Amino acid sequence: MAGELPAKHIVIGSQQLKQLQKNVWSDRYVQAVMTAGGNKANIQIRYRGGHTREYPKRSYEVIRGGKTYHYNAEYDDPSLIRNALSFRFFNWIGVPGPATKHCLLFVNGVCLGVYLEIEGVDRSFFRKRGISVQSLFYAVNDHANFDLLKPGSKRRKAELFSGYQQIMGNPADRRKLKRFIHRLNTTKGAHELKAYLYRRIDIDNYLRWLAGAVLTGNYDGFEQNYAIYRHRAAQKYRMIPWDYEGTWGRNCYGKPCGSDLVRITGYNRLTRKLLQYAEVRRKYKRLLVKLLQTEFTVSRILPAAESMHNQIKPYMKWEPVRKWPIHVFDGEMQFIRKYIEERRTLVTEAIKEL
């Protein structure tokens, strides 16, 4: 049928499965085989995620053909589309987001339900997009707040790299990121800091990433849940979104959180430093106004959301475990529409004070 979900079949040997299940918090991979679309491939697989590893429906990370893929259970999200819709939106506004597609996941012949396959942000991600990259870091917890201090504290961090995981690059690249965070916080004089930030940050990319997090309402997306990379040719840092399940009016546990949860100036030190400059604020304001006229509209977003929702709907009966009743899933398109309408009004008013 049109829009049929692809099936991914994973076969894990008994000893490998026992090793995988022995400790859900282990990041060690085990060997397995995946069959998809008639093609069979050897893979490495492990569990992924934070608190979600203890859920009855768990998420997986798979390395296949040298590329990384995430199979997200989307257990907290009653729509199962928030990550996919958010990354689609980021691509619309000029920030590269991971490619996604929904699928049915089977392990040893047992259907685990509808999953979201998410492209890993790794070397192949950049090669596919023709982006020249020197280093890449994941912001894995809220210590990645671009500050010298611990979140919500007046105590200095013991290590400026706290909050990050290096994925690409060498020790010198790690030192460069630490030096950037240090200079961001210690450079004296507004003019000197502005010149430094313009040399080290791709301002256009950063503001588009900020606008994406603000408009989709990702409260957890400013001090963590992003990737930052250094562009080899420009020698400037750029941002990539990651983990956008808590968006479009719901938090990361799926609970309604209101359309006014996220202020339009976001929540990290780097954003505060950048927006102290009038020309950056004007640029950001123009960008928000443009996005409210073009991409962040019901007419642009809802058809994409409905297409994903309609593709998944026939397969919800395959869900062996479900956090939310089916009537909540059925009402999600109206929920997301309401969020967009309310968020547009709130952002339009907040722009006037920017």
From TrEMBL:
Organism domain of life: Bacteria
Keyword field: Capsid protein, Virion
Xref: PANTHER family: INNER SPORE COAT PROTEIN H
Name under which the protein is recorded: Spore coat protein CotH
Species assigned in the record: Paenibacillus naphthalenovorans
